[in-house]
């Protein structure tokens, strides 16, 4: 993907913020338990910066666990959706490459499904600047389990149909990126699944950047074909989506 294409994909989410908030997967409780175990600190009462917060899916979960969380989001459309749904959450405009925060003010910085939109050579030094000594960064991604036949077939269809299609697999490079900085690095993989209707699956797809950048005349036939394929696999209209949740944690060395 060229820099211009990457920028277009990154900027596409504002127009699909409502779909994103409605249909994107959430995160299991085990994720936050794993973050506490790997960082050695509790989330309740912690000063947390949720960067690339999007519509606040992870931010709300951190807030519910008692974190003093601030959402950082560059997209006006995504930020507006977050504020509309969760006006009680502090929200500031910014991105991970240039955090609008004072030095040494955060106990935990999180990137939920967002770190790949940053430049690690800029964003990780920013994380170190804003973290307090002993603070931590947590990066995670929900990744559909493509070993499941219907998801493997879906990916093959999308690769064939969409020139803009991209798929983020396990983020194996993250460990190397973190290790180049003064972090104690740990990784954990969790598995979970959700059940949703076919139309919700299609709404989720609409919220993906590789669909959001397309013109309707290209996008809609692909979604119609997906509806047909999903109903063939799930005649009752209820889909099971299994996920591998890939979590990386870096604890800042004192």
Please explain how this structure is put together:
The protein is an alpha/beta fold. It has one domain: 3-Layer(aba) Sandwich (Rossmann fold). Helix content is 42%, strand content 26%. Strands 3-2-1-4-5-7-6 form a 7-stranded mixed β-sheet. Strand 1, helix 4 (57-64) and strand 2 form a beta-alpha-beta unit. Helix 7 (149-161) runs antiparallel to helix 11. The longest helix has 18 residues, at 216-233. The radius of gyration is 18 Å and the shape is globular. The mean pLDDT is 93.
In short, what is this structure?
With 254 residues, the chain is of the alpha/beta class. It has one domain (3-144, 169-194, 243-252): 3-Layer(aba) Sandwich (Rossmann fold), CATH 3.40.50.
